[in-house]
Design goal:
The structure holds two protein chains of two kinds. By secondary structure, chain A is mainly α. Chain A contains 16 helices and no strands. The chains are: A mainly alpha, B alpha/beta.
């Protein structure tokens, strides 16, 4: 494109970038912009969720006709109670905080998996499947060998990495070799993994002797992730997640392969021109992404009761991870904070259900609303009258869609 | 009837794109609007076409102010625009494209196809455009597609027509045809704004020439008062050297030799069809030709981006036909790609990251698997200085630089080696005169350092200014070879494939 319709060139506004951010992320926005949209998205989601609390309280609804003032007071009180419980349940005590960290652990791994894909221009919806395969591999190592914990746990994690990388790598290979879009293949691989797990859990290799339902043997105690503080549930998985954040940051912004990932992600033609083997990058990215998903899967088996494989043990983590990566703008540190936030919502959601009687499903509503607002930044800008940055669409995650 | 833009000012955050611009066009008048990229021509035209709202100022027709909030308003006011990049649906017919957005219908929304065809025929006949209403757009050559755009504008009864860089996609002969059409429109009383950066064309066609620089109209001249040098000076703001100065070439050994190369395009057609050529050290060989005659595929094949079906490519005697882009790059081949934004740069990357885009894996920019950003930045700082890239710092995103500076980033990256062969495709497309001068001089400098240079350009002027030897590419083959004394007419004919006679036109 040469001239028509391009905005004026040499925007001086961009000089204000803190240079480390541009250099480190390659994302065309300042740090402030990177934080403002997610923060406002969360705020908007909480406000809309408050309305939902208000209109779904069946006890108050009839009061609006007879005594609107009282109804209003009760509604505000109800919303206040709900959000107070949400906060108390996530940050209000040592137990609450450890529960938040516990819930955040698999989300951080899975979020990193999606973020690595986004940065390289690939949309990995298959974290769910990669968790299942990686988790099963870790489980098998967990119950089939005897070793001290210092060896057993790393072996189990390596198995999870291998399993997840394999499952992700298949989608990468299909993309590289045949052009099959990873969105389609990873979704399909999710189903294959899901039912493969169900099948495996009923084979003699995995199934708990004496049971007929799909449930596996218990992992050896040496393979269980040791807890960090007393009897609180948070375990070393959280420390591993922190380490993974650092490792992914190094990989993306300090290593040559990460440079290749980001170059291909931002401009595949440019990557090819620069001599990068784009097909190979697709395979590598999906394998790295899958490996992170695999660790998330191991965490779901070796990191919590009952330390067994059950049907669909990955739950919704692999899908929540997509929202999380979007919220964290595909930056590892962003993913860390987004993971902590989602972990807090989960931990607090249980308290909210217990103390304020609001169904925990509201947390899912909040999560979903966050995604809507993040996916439509123009909406947030319109609501809060934020000036549009000169170059729209330069953010990393948007490259993942339909690329 | 008179169209006026009065005191137009358009403020973008941090940039004054238009600063109190005045422009008027009368009936049957051709006004050429000249200016470099970024001078504010496009912004002004987008305001006229209702795409931007001016910060202040107004657009008037016969002293009546217009409310222009969308292209629809502009069309209703009788203002039409022929864009540089055509807005046509490739799989629709000419008639369907012409009525698109303003479809004549019978009762209950039934499309009146017959009336559409009649309308196209009528307009085509009146201005001797010679367009078949039933032809499918994608089957038509670019010159005819442009006529379809013109018919679209005329079908909406435009009284003023804006042409945005209309000749940039045409061959020299098509340009002649285009000028005849414009003359016909003028005779019919249309007011015409002709946006260009080609000085010769403005002098040939315009009744009046308005020159913009940095958002302002800096001069308004009559063609008979000025020459190209003067216009260039007005555009750039300083005297400009339009001639590329170079010594006689001293060709030495053959560096690049291509024999019977066959390359398929994306549609699996033979885009390069048994082509042979040689480039020697110390000479510049220019490949002229209408776009789409296999030049893109040729360059992609030579640089390893596209596999060839047959033939041999040798670099200094070594067969590199099947080598990867990186292997070819490592043999000191510099490649300035056709489309800098599509393949030459990663736009969301910083200047530093783009400078090391093809050397990031080598010391000192990386140590093993780890990048050494300090060394990368040092190289970027040095090259930005050496190649006169105007950027506030090497840490800004390359997308914030002007086209000319983006191109200099690529040239810096590619030439910062002991280059054996330069392959440059459209090296100065869409960039400002100052950068063109600079890049041309750099290319000549590479030649003088005994590099072999292959230039591919659809701008015949550029080929003629730079080349020691000119090859014309037509339908995948070399259709003619000329030395630098050839005339544009001779070369233009070869570009149309008519080596022997004129019957092709």
């Amino acid at each position: 494109m040469t001239e028509s319709g391009t905005p004026p060139e040499n925007e001086p506004g961009d000089k204000e970038l803190p240079d480390w951010y541009a250099r480190v992320t390659g994302v065309g926005s300042s740090l402030r912009q990177a934080l403002v949209i997610p923060a406002l998205a969360l705020l908007s989601a909480l406000i809309i969720a408050a309305f939902i609390i208000a209109v779904t309280d069946v006890d108050i609804l009839p009061l609006w006709g007879t005594d609107p003032g009282e109804a209003f007071r009760l509604t505000i009180g109800g919303i206040g109670d709900a959000y107070k419980a949400l906060f108390v349940g996530s940050f209000g005590s040592v137990r609450a905080i450890t529960e938040t960290l516990f819930a955040a652990t698999p989300l951080i791994f899975a979020g990193l998996a999606v973020a690595v894909g986004f940065q390289a221009g690939l949309f990995n919806i298959g974290v769910n499947g990669q968790m299942h395969i990686g988790g099963m591999a870790a489980l098998w190592v967990g119950f089939s060998i005897a070793a001290p914990a210092i060896i057993h746990i790393p072996l189990a994690i390596l198995a999870a990495i291998a399993g997840g990388a394999l499952w992700g790598g298949i989608a990468g290979l299909l993309r590289a070799r045949t052009g099959a879009h990873e969105v389609i293949t990873t979704i399909m691989l999710n189903f294959i993994a899901l039912f493969l797990v169900d099948y495996l859990l009923k084979t003699t290799v995995f199934q708990q002797p004496g049971r007929n339902d799909p449930i596996s043997q218990k992992a050896a105690s040496t393979a269980e992730f040791p807890t960090l503080i007393g009897d609180y549930r948070v375990q070393i998985g959280f420390l591993l997640a922190l380490a993974a954040v650092g490792a992914v940051w190094w990989l993306m912004y300090r290593s040559t392969i990460g440079f290749e990932f980001r170059a291909v992600g931002s401009n595949p033609d440019g990557g090819k021109y620069a001599g990068i083997n784009v097909a190979w990058i697709y395979v590598t990215v999906m394998a790295v992404s899958g490996a992170l998903g695999g660790i998330a899967g191991a965490n779901q088996i070796l990191g919590l009761e009952p330390y067994r494989g059950i049907s669909n043990f990955a739950g919704t983590v692999g899908f929540d991870a997509i929202a999380l990566a979007l919220l964290g703008r595909s930056h590892p540190v962003g993913v860390l904070f987004a993971g902590l936030l989602f972990g807090a919502l989960r931990a607090g959601g249980r308290e909210m259900q217990g103390a304020a009687g609001i169904p925990i499903d509201l947390v899912l509503v909040v999560q979903a609303l966050v995604i809507v607002f993040i996916a439509a930044p123009a909406l947030v800008r319109a609501i809060y009258r934020i000036k549009t940055p000169e170059q729209e669409g330069g953010t990393t995650f948007s490259k993942g869609w339909g690329a | 009837m008179k169209l006026e833009l009065k005191g137009i000012t358009k403020q973008f955050p941090g940039v004054l794109a238009n600063d109190n611009v005045n422009l008027s066009i009368g009936e049957g008048e051709i006004v050429a609007l000249l200016g470099e990229n970024g001078a504010g021509k496009s912004t002004l035209m987008n305001i006229l076409y209702g795409l931007y709202t001016p910060t202040s100022g107004e657009v008037l027709i016969d002293n009546q102010p217009l409310e222009l909030h969308s292209p629809g308003d502009a069309i209703a006011a009788g203002i039409g625009m022929v864009h540089q990049h055509f807005m046509l649906v490739p799989v629709f017919t000419v008639a369907e494209n012409v009525i698109l957005g303003d479809e004549p219908t019978k009762r209950i929304g039934w499309l009146d196809a017959r009336r559409a065809r009649k309308m196209v025929k009528e307009i085509s006949g009146r201005y001797s455009l010679d367009v078949d209403p039933d032809a499918i757009i994608e089957d038509l050559p670019v010159g005819i597609q442009q006529r379809v755009e013109i018919i679209k504008v005329l079908a909406r009864e435009a009284r003023f027509v804006v042409f945005d860089e209309p000749t940039s996609v045409l061959t020299p002969n098509e340009v002649e045809g285009f000028f005849e059409i414009v003359a016909g429109l003028k005779a019919d009383g249309k007011g015409i704004i002709f946006i260009s950066h080609k000085l010769g064309e403005a002098l040939e066609i315009a009744d009046r020439i308005v020159i913009m620089r940095r958002g302002k109209t800096v001069a308004e001249v009559l063609p008979e008062e000025v020459d190209e040098e003067k216009l260039a000076e007005l555009m750039v703001g300083r005297p400009v050297d339009l001639v590329v100065h170079r010594e006689e070439a001293k060709p030495a050994d053959v560096v690049l030799s291509v024999e019977n190369l066959v390359v398929l395009d994306d549609r699996l057609q033979r885009a390069v069809d048994g082509l042979s050529l040689e480039v020697r050290a110390g000479e510049i060989v220019g490949i002229a030709g209408v776009q789409g005659n296999g030049q893109t595929e040729l360059v992609e094949s030579l640089t390893g981006l596209r596999t060839s079906l047959g033939g041999v490519v040798r670099l200094n005697g070594e067969d590199i036909t099947t080598k990867s882009p990186r292997a070819i790059h490592k043999r000191n081949v510099a490649h300035v790609p056709e489309d800098r934004q599509k393949s030459g740069l990663v736009l969301p990357f910083t200047v530093t990251e783009n400078i090391v885009l093809d050397s990031y894996y080598e010391a000192p920019v990386s140590r093993g698997v780890q990048m050494n950003w300090g060394a990368a930045r040092d190289r970027a700082v040095r090259l930005v200085e050496e190649y006169d890239v105007r950027t506030p710092s090497v840490d800004v995103l390359v997308s914030t630089l002007s086209g000319g500076n983006q191109q200099k980033v690529i040239v810096a990256r590619e030439f910062d080696r002991d280059v054996a062969l330069v392959i440059a495709s459209q090296p100065t497309r869409g960039i400002d005169v100052g950068s063109i001068e600079y890049i041309h001089s750099r290319i000549v400098q590479e030649r003088d350092n005994q590099s072999a240079v292959l230039i591919v350009s659809s701008e015949l002027d550029e080929i003629m200014a730079l080349s020691d030897r000119i090859l014309v590419m037509f339908e995948g083959k070399i259709a003619g070879e000329f030395d630098s004394s050839a005339t544009p007419t001779e070369i233009g004919l070869a570009m149309l494939g008519s080596q022997g006679g004129l019957e092709a036109s």
